[in-house]
């Protein structure tokens, strides 16, 4: 595989990402220090370029229609790249119960009954320990995460803060923000895809959002859900769409100052540019949760370390389990998986109306269970992304997942009773202190070092992003 060349001109280091596809005209230039006004003016005068994407002090990306004639101060050994194509993959189930993008199909007998969502009919009970209990829970995934072992209780216990004051950015196909399950807590943040509307016509993002924060199906029932549409109505887009989405959430978070999470239910073959961008998001103080992936085209599990953003060291990668606590046969595995969460035939909201729900499978829908749990943590404790990852794995149920022998994956099942962290030494605003702040700074430095190493170790090959549904 060809490799990029690093070159220095006027203190400007430019890495051009190489790709094997030579058909498309769109390419990406990645700058590790800001381009000067003169350089931007020159490039813009010669080529059709998009807005410069700024993801941090040492990370700038310029999409544009570049060719092999591009020269700056007679530099040599330039690598050109096609803008990576973003696309969804086939769903886990060949004939899914409620196929996303296929309308609101009724579920089969015994799998949820009438899936019309009525938040007003959901029953909640208060306890004496600041815990609220949701009764008659329909989704086994929500039922499972609040208890250490089977059988299911048909209830969901959660901390009364319920994610209040926390922002979750759903970087996906959008969200039907008018769905009744969101109770007005969902808002539209950005549409990064051209020629699309501010709506979720495919349904993937809405299903994800419902698991994170819907009143009926959600883990964190008071969280703010923010739609960041980086994939179009067919589940396709480009890498620069994703990067514009990352830029938006960093700026939004810097302005809001609220605790924040980014849910990434998509993936690609291992891509250093994606990993570098994820590091920037985490360095900005946003916890990143990624789907581990659904295996190859034949449904056979693959090593999550071979895909991005799951392989990013700063992300929390989530694999999927079945209702009997066995790893889903299609879930990706390996040491890059952080933990597992329910992902087979789980229930959430459909985008086709404002009141319907359905059943779906995939690590795309395991990740939002973990995003919801983190929202519960962040509404109760003052945690940076590194603390979140540590506390999340400490809280998780140990040795509950069956079928992990030989996978090199940690045997950790997501657990949502975040109040148990108080007796387990969680880093709260009282406990985090200066030591925790220093640790976060150290981690940020290591992420920067990793990014610089990625910049010099060669560019990623051409690959495809997809939604692992």
Automatic annotation (TrEMBL):
SUPFAM superfamilies: Subtilisin-like. Pfam families: Peptidase_S8. One of its GO terms (cellular component) is extracellular space. Residues 1-24 form the signal peptide. CDD domains: Peptidases_S8_PCSK9_ProteinaseK_like. The active site is at 172 (charge relay system), 204 (charge relay system), 364 (charge relay system). The keyword Protein transport does not apply. PANTHER family: PEPTIDASE S8, SUBTILASE-TYPE PROTEINASE RRT12. This is 1957_t:CDS:1.
